[in-house]
Amino acid sequence: MLEDIAALFKDRPWQSLESADLARAKAVPSMLAWEETQFYYWLGQTFSSVDGVFVDLGCFVGGSTARFAGGIQDAGHASVVHAFDRFTVNEKIKKAVLYESGIAPFEGRDMLPLSKDLLAPFADHVVHHQGDITEAQWNGAPIDVLAHDASKSRKSMDAQAEIFWPYFRTGRTIMVQQDYLHTVQPWIPVQMELWADHFEPLAFIRGSSLAFLCTKTPAASVLEERRVANLDHADQVSLIKKARDRMAAFGKPVAKKLDIATQLLEENPGVEQPWKLKRAKNAA
Ligand SMILES: C[S@@+](CC[C@H](N)C(=O)[O-])C[C@H]1O[C@@H](n2cnc3c(N)ncnc32)[C@H](O)[C@@H]1O
Protein backbone atom coordinates (compact mmCIF):
# COMPACT_ATOMS: atom_id res chain seq x y z
CA MET A 1 0.00 0.00 0.00
CA LEU A 2 1.22 3.45 -0.82
CA GLU A 3 -0.15 5.17 2.26
CA ASP A 4 1.77 8.39 2.07
CA ILE A 5 3.42 8.99 -1.25
CA ALA A 6 5.10 12.27 -0.30
CA ALA A 7 6.80 10.51 2.64
CA LEU A 8 8.11 7.83 0.27
CA PHE A 9 9.93 10.50 -1.70
CA LYS A 10 11.29 12.42 1.27
CA ASP A 11 14.52 10.48 1.81
CA ARG A 12 15.17 10.06 -1.93
CA PRO A 13 15.62 6.25 -1.68
CA TRP A 14 16.47 5.93 -5.39
CA GLN A 15 19.82 7.61 -4.71
CA SER A 16 21.09 4.53 -2.89
CA LEU A 17 20.74 2.37 -6.01
CA GLU A 18 24.16 1.30 -7.28
CA SER A 19 25.33 1.24 -10.87
CA ALA A 20 25.53 -2.59 -10.73
CA ASP A 21 21.81 -2.78 -9.76
CA LEU A 22 20.96 -0.95 -12.96
CA ALA A 23 23.42 -2.63 -15.32
CA ARG A 24 20.82 -4.28 -17.60
CA ALA A 25 18.63 -1.19 -17.81
CA LYS A 26 21.63 1.08 -18.38
CA ALA A 27 22.73 -1.01 -21.34
CA VAL A 28 20.05 0.76 -23.42
CA PRO A 29 21.32 4.22 -24.49
CA SER A 30 19.47 7.14 -22.95
CA MET A 31 19.65 10.89 -22.68
CA LEU A 32 18.74 10.72 -18.99
CA ALA A 33 21.15 11.85 -16.26
CA TRP A 34 22.37 9.38 -13.61
CA GLU A 35 19.91 10.41 -10.90
CA GLU A 36 17.06 10.23 -13.41
CA THR A 37 18.20 6.71 -14.29
CA GLN A 38 18.06 5.72 -10.61
CA PHE A 39 14.71 7.43 -10.21
CA TYR A 40 13.00 5.79 -13.20
CA TYR A 41 14.19 2.35 -12.07
CA TRP A 42 12.95 3.02 -8.52
CA LEU A 43 9.55 4.12 -9.89
CA GLY A 44 9.39 0.78 -11.72
CA GLN A 45 10.19 -1.10 -8.52
CA THR A 46 7.83 0.94 -6.34
CA PHE A 47 4.80 2.16 -8.28
CA SER A 48 3.57 -0.83 -10.29
CA SER A 49 -0.02 -1.79 -9.49
CA VAL A 50 -2.04 -4.86 -10.46
CA ASP A 51 -4.25 -3.08 -13.01
CA GLY A 52 -2.22 0.01 -13.96
CA VAL A 53 0.55 0.64 -16.49
CA PHE A 54 3.50 2.93 -17.18
CA VAL A 55 3.55 5.38 -20.10
CA ASP A 56 6.81 6.72 -21.54
CA LEU A 57 6.13 9.63 -23.89
CA GLY A 58 9.25 10.32 -25.96
CA CYS A 59 11.39 7.28 -25.21
CA PHE A 60 13.94 7.84 -28.04
CA VAL A 61 15.53 4.38 -28.55
CA GLY A 62 14.02 3.08 -25.30
CA GLY A 63 16.51 4.09 -22.59
CA SER A 64 13.88 5.54 -20.26
CA THR A 65 11.60 2.56 -21.01
CA ALA A 66 14.39 0.13 -20.05
CA ARG A 67 14.92 1.94 -16.78
CA PHE A 68 11.23 1.66 -15.87
CA ALA A 69 10.96 -1.92 -17.15
CA GLY A 70 14.17 -3.01 -15.37
CA GLY A 71 12.74 -1.84 -12.04
CA ILE A 72 9.41 -3.54 -12.75
CA GLN A 73 11.05 -6.81 -13.80
CA ASP A 74 13.63 -6.96 -11.02
CA ALA A 75 10.90 -6.35 -8.43
CA GLY A 76 8.92 -9.28 -9.87
CA HIS A 77 5.96 -7.15 -10.99
CA ALA A 78 3.88 -7.85 -14.11
CA SER A 79 3.37 -4.23 -15.16
CA VAL A 80 3.96 -2.98 -18.69
CA VAL A 81 5.57 0.20 -20.08
CA HIS A 82 3.89 1.71 -23.13
CA ALA A 83 6.74 3.35 -25.07
CA PHE A 84 5.71 6.13 -27.47
CA ASP A 85 7.98 7.79 -30.02
CA ARG A 86 8.34 8.36 -33.74
CA PHE A 87 11.39 6.08 -33.48
CA THR A 88 13.18 8.04 -36.18
CA VAL A 89 16.70 9.41 -35.89
CA ASN A 90 19.03 11.58 -37.95
CA GLU A 91 22.74 11.08 -38.58
CA LYS A 92 23.78 13.75 -36.07
CA ILE A 93 21.88 12.12 -33.17
CA LYS A 94 22.98 8.66 -34.27
CA LYS A 95 26.61 9.74 -33.89
CA ALA A 96 26.15 11.79 -30.71
CA VAL A 97 24.00 9.33 -28.74
CA LEU A 98 23.82 5.88 -30.32
CA TYR A 99 27.29 5.30 -31.74
CA GLU A 100 28.84 7.03 -28.68
CA SER A 101 27.09 4.33 -26.61
CA GLY A 102 28.51 1.50 -28.68
CA ILE A 103 25.61 0.87 -31.08
CA ALA A 104 26.88 -0.37 -34.46
CA PRO A 105 26.33 2.09 -37.33
CA PHE A 106 23.18 1.48 -39.37
CA GLU A 107 21.51 2.84 -42.49
CA GLY A 108 18.30 4.83 -42.60
CA ARG A 109 16.23 6.74 -40.09
CA ASP A 110 13.96 4.08 -38.59
CA MET A 111 15.14 2.94 -35.16
CA LEU A 112 12.10 0.84 -34.18
CA PRO A 113 13.89 -2.47 -34.98
CA LEU A 114 16.90 -1.31 -32.96
CA SER A 115 14.66 -0.32 -30.04
CA LYS A 116 12.95 -3.72 -30.13
CA ASP A 117 16.33 -5.49 -30.10
CA LEU A 118 17.61 -3.38 -27.22
CA LEU A 119 14.45 -3.88 -25.18
CA ALA A 120 14.23 -7.63 -25.87
CA PRO A 121 15.40 -8.52 -22.31
CA PHE A 122 12.29 -6.67 -21.07
CA ALA A 123 9.95 -7.83 -23.85
CA ASP A 124 7.24 -9.02 -21.43
CA HIS A 125 7.07 -5.52 -19.97
CA VAL A 126 7.20 -3.28 -23.07
CA VAL A 127 4.71 -2.27 -25.78
CA HIS A 128 6.04 -0.06 -28.59
CA HIS A 129 3.82 2.63 -30.17
CA GLN A 130 5.41 4.24 -33.24
CA GLY A 131 4.07 7.55 -34.55
CA ASP A 132 3.19 11.09 -33.59
CA ILE A 133 2.20 11.06 -29.91
CA THR A 134 -0.21 13.94 -30.42
CA GLU A 135 -2.30 11.63 -32.62
CA ALA A 136 -2.09 8.60 -30.32
CA GLN A 137 -5.13 6.84 -28.91
CA TRP A 138 -5.03 5.53 -25.37
CA ASN A 139 -6.55 2.13 -24.54
CA GLY A 140 -8.12 3.40 -21.31
CA ALA A 141 -5.90 1.54 -18.82
CA PRO A 142 -5.28 3.40 -15.56
CA ILE A 143 -1.83 5.00 -15.53
CA ASP A 144 0.48 4.48 -12.54
CA VAL A 145 3.44 6.47 -13.86
CA LEU A 146 3.76 8.72 -16.91
CA ALA A 147 6.93 10.42 -18.13
CA HIS A 148 6.65 13.42 -20.43
CA ASP A 149 9.79 13.80 -22.53
CA ALA A 150 8.24 14.99 -25.80
CA SER A 151 6.79 18.34 -24.66
CA LYS A 152 8.27 20.37 -27.45
CA SER A 153 5.49 22.92 -28.10
CA ARG A 154 2.42 24.28 -26.34
CA LYS A 155 0.04 22.53 -28.74
CA SER A 156 1.80 19.20 -28.42
CA MET A 157 1.77 19.46 -24.60
CA ASP A 158 -1.97 20.16 -24.60
CA ALA A 159 -2.65 17.25 -26.98
CA GLN A 160 -0.64 14.79 -24.87
CA ALA A 161 -2.39 15.95 -21.69
CA GLU A 162 -5.81 15.51 -23.33
CA ILE A 163 -5.00 11.96 -24.47
CA PHE A 164 -3.44 10.61 -21.28
CA TRP A 165 -4.23 12.67 -18.18
CA PRO A 166 -7.89 11.58 -17.82
CA TYR A 167 -6.52 8.10 -17.00
CA PHE A 168 -4.52 9.29 -14.00
CA ARG A 169 -5.66 8.16 -10.55
CA THR A 170 -6.21 10.67 -7.79
CA GLY A 171 -3.63 10.30 -5.04
CA ARG A 172 -1.76 7.55 -6.90
CA THR A 173 -0.40 8.49 -10.34
CA ILE A 174 3.14 9.84 -10.55
CA MET A 175 3.94 12.15 -13.45
CA VAL A 176 7.52 13.00 -14.40
CA GLN A 177 8.11 16.18 -16.37
CA GLN A 178 11.57 15.28 -17.63
CA ASP A 179 12.26 18.67 -19.21
CA TYR A 180 10.76 20.80 -16.44
CA LEU A 181 14.09 22.56 -15.92
CA HIS A 182 15.17 22.59 -19.55
CA THR A 183 15.20 26.34 -19.82
CA VAL A 184 14.25 26.52 -23.50
CA GLN A 185 10.96 24.76 -22.69
CA PRO A 186 9.47 27.36 -20.31
CA TRP A 187 5.95 26.21 -21.22
CA ILE A 188 6.35 23.09 -19.06
CA PRO A 189 6.49 25.04 -15.76
CA VAL A 190 3.70 27.22 -17.18
CA GLN A 191 1.57 24.12 -17.83
CA MET A 192 2.20 22.63 -14.39
CA GLU A 193 1.35 25.92 -12.69
CA LEU A 194 -1.86 26.15 -14.73
CA TRP A 195 -2.68 22.70 -13.33
CA ALA A 196 -1.39 23.34 -9.78
CA ASP A 197 -4.79 22.35 -8.36
CA HIS A 198 -4.38 18.83 -9.86
CA PHE A 199 -0.70 18.06 -9.22
CA GLU A 200 1.54 18.34 -6.17
CA PRO A 201 5.31 18.58 -6.74
CA LEU A 202 7.18 15.74 -5.03
CA ALA A 203 10.86 16.00 -5.95
CA PHE A 204 13.50 17.55 -8.17
CA ILE A 205 15.68 14.91 -9.81
CA ARG A 206 18.98 15.96 -11.42
CA GLY A 207 19.37 16.68 -14.54
CA SER A 208 16.09 18.43 -15.23
CA SER A 209 13.11 16.41 -13.96
CA LEU A 210 10.34 17.34 -11.58
CA ALA A 211 8.06 14.59 -10.29
CA PHE A 212 4.44 15.29 -9.40
CA LEU A 213 1.62 13.41 -7.67
CA CYS A 214 -1.80 13.66 -9.26
CA THR A 215 -4.08 15.00 -6.52
CA LYS A 216 -7.19 15.20 -8.71
CA THR A 217 -7.81 13.38 -11.99
CA PRO A 218 -8.02 15.96 -14.80
CA ALA A 219 -11.49 15.83 -16.36
CA ALA A 220 -11.70 15.77 -20.17
CA SER A 221 -13.97 18.83 -20.13
CA VAL A 222 -11.44 20.83 -18.05
CA LEU A 223 -8.57 19.73 -20.30
CA GLU A 224 -10.40 21.12 -23.32
CA GLU A 225 -10.83 24.50 -21.66
CA ARG A 226 -7.46 24.77 -19.92
CA ARG A 227 -4.93 24.74 -22.73
CA VAL A 228 -1.44 26.24 -22.55
CA ALA A 229 -1.86 27.25 -26.21
CA ASN A 230 -4.78 29.51 -25.23
CA LEU A 231 -2.75 31.56 -22.74
CA ASP A 232 -1.55 35.00 -23.78
CA HIS A 233 2.05 36.07 -23.17
CA ALA A 234 1.29 37.97 -19.95
CA ASP A 235 -0.53 34.95 -18.46
CA GLN A 236 2.37 32.65 -19.34
CA VAL A 237 4.89 34.99 -17.68
CA SER A 238 2.71 35.36 -14.62
CA LEU A 239 2.40 31.55 -14.29
CA ILE A 240 6.11 30.84 -14.68
CA LYS A 241 6.87 33.43 -12.02
CA LYS A 242 4.47 31.66 -9.66
CA ALA A 243 6.15 28.36 -10.53
CA ARG A 244 9.56 29.85 -9.74
CA ASP A 245 8.38 31.03 -6.31
CA ARG A 246 6.68 27.71 -5.50
CA MET A 247 9.52 25.47 -6.72
CA ALA A 248 12.29 27.51 -5.03
CA ALA A 249 11.62 25.20 -2.05
CA PHE A 250 13.48 22.51 -4.02
CA GLY A 251 16.71 24.52 -3.81
CA LYS A 252 18.87 27.07 -5.55
CA PRO A 253 19.62 25.10 -8.74
CA VAL A 254 15.86 24.83 -9.38
CA ALA A 255 15.22 28.52 -8.71
CA LYS A 256 18.18 29.51 -10.90
CA LYS A 257 16.97 27.44 -13.86
CA LEU A 258 13.48 28.85 -13.52
CA ASP A 259 14.88 32.39 -13.44
CA ILE A 260 16.58 31.70 -16.77
CA ALA A 261 13.43 30.10 -18.24
CA THR A 262 11.38 33.12 -17.08
CA GLN A 263 13.83 35.52 -18.69
CA LEU A 264 13.77 33.55 -21.96
CA LEU A 265 9.97 33.54 -21.99
CA GLU A 266 9.71 37.24 -21.17
CA GLU A 267 12.21 38.23 -23.85
CA ASN A 268 10.65 36.12 -26.62
CA PRO A 269 6.93 36.88 -26.85
CA GLY A 270 5.19 34.90 -29.59
CA VAL A 271 8.00 32.37 -30.02
CA GLU A 272 6.62 28.82 -30.06
CA GLN A 273 9.62 26.54 -30.64
CA PRO A 274 12.39 25.86 -28.09
CA TRP A 275 15.13 26.21 -30.68
CA LYS A 276 13.87 29.70 -31.61
CA LEU A 277 14.08 31.11 -28.09
CA LYS A 278 16.98 33.57 -28.03
CA ARG A 279 19.22 32.63 -25.16
CA ALA A 280 19.47 35.18 -22.42
CA LYS A 281 22.85 36.14 -21.04
CA ASN A 282 24.20 33.50 -18.66
CA ALA A 283 21.60 30.99 -19.79
CA ALA A 284 22.42 27.37 -18.94
C1 LIG B 1 14.80 13.95 -25.39
S1 LIG B 1 14.25 12.63 -26.38
C2 LIG B 1 13.77 11.43 -25.22
C3 LIG B 1 14.85 10.77 -24.44
C4 LIG B 1 14.47 9.46 -23.79
N1 LIG B 1 13.43 9.58 -22.81
C5 LIG B 1 15.68 8.76 -23.23
O1 LIG B 1 15.63 8.15 -22.17
O2 LIG B 1 16.72 8.79 -23.88
C6 LIG B 1 12.71 13.19 -26.97
C7 LIG B 1 12.00 12.18 -27.85
O3 LIG B 1 10.69 12.66 -28.08
C8 LIG B 1 10.28 12.27 -29.35
N2 LIG B 1 9.17 13.13 -29.78
C9 LIG B 1 9.06 14.48 -29.66
N3 LIG B 1 7.86 14.89 -30.11
C10 LIG B 1 7.20 13.77 -30.52
C11 LIG B 1 5.92 13.53 -31.08
N4 LIG B 1 5.06 14.53 -31.31
N5 LIG B 1 5.59 12.27 -31.40
C12 LIG B 1 6.45 11.24 -31.18
N6 LIG B 1 7.66 11.40 -30.64
C13 LIG B 1 8.04 12.65 -30.32
C14 LIG B 1 11.53 12.40 -30.21
O4 LIG B 1 11.45 11.53 -31.33
C15 LIG B 1 12.63 11.99 -29.22
O5 LIG B 1 13.01 10.65 -29.38
Count all strands and give the number. 7
- Estimated helix fraction: 25-40%
Number of structural domains: 1
CATH C-level label: Alpha Beta
Q: Report the biggest beta sheet as strand number plus sense, adding barrel if it closes.
A: 7 strands, mixed
Topology pattern, helix = H, strand = E: HHHEHEHHEEHEHEEHHH
> How are the strands of the biggest sheet laid out side by side?
3-2-1-4-5-7-6
CATH topology: the name is Rossmann fold
Number of helices: 11
Overall geometry comes to globular
Q: What structural class do the secondary elements suggest?
A: alpha/beta
Mean pLDDT: 95
Task: Summarize the SSE layout with pairings.
Elements: H1 5-10, H2 23-26, H3 34-46, E1 53-57, H4 63-74, E2 81-85, H5 91-98, H6 112-118, E3 126-130, E4 143-148, H7 154-164, E5 174-177, H8 187-194, E6 199-205, E7 209-214, H9 220-225, H10 233-247, H11 252-267
Parallel strand pairs: 1-2, 1-4, 2-3, 4-5
Antiparallel strand pairs: 5-7, 6-7
Helix pairs in contact: 3-4, 8-10, 10-11
List keywords for this structure.
284 residues; alpha/beta; Rossmann fold; seven-stranded mixed beta sheet; 11 helices; binds S-adenosylmethionine
Short description:
This protein has helices at about 5-10, 25, 35-45, 65-75, 90-100, 110-120, 155-165, 185-195, 220-225, 235-245, 250-265, and strands at about 55, 80-85, 125-130, 145-150, 175, 200-205, 210-215.
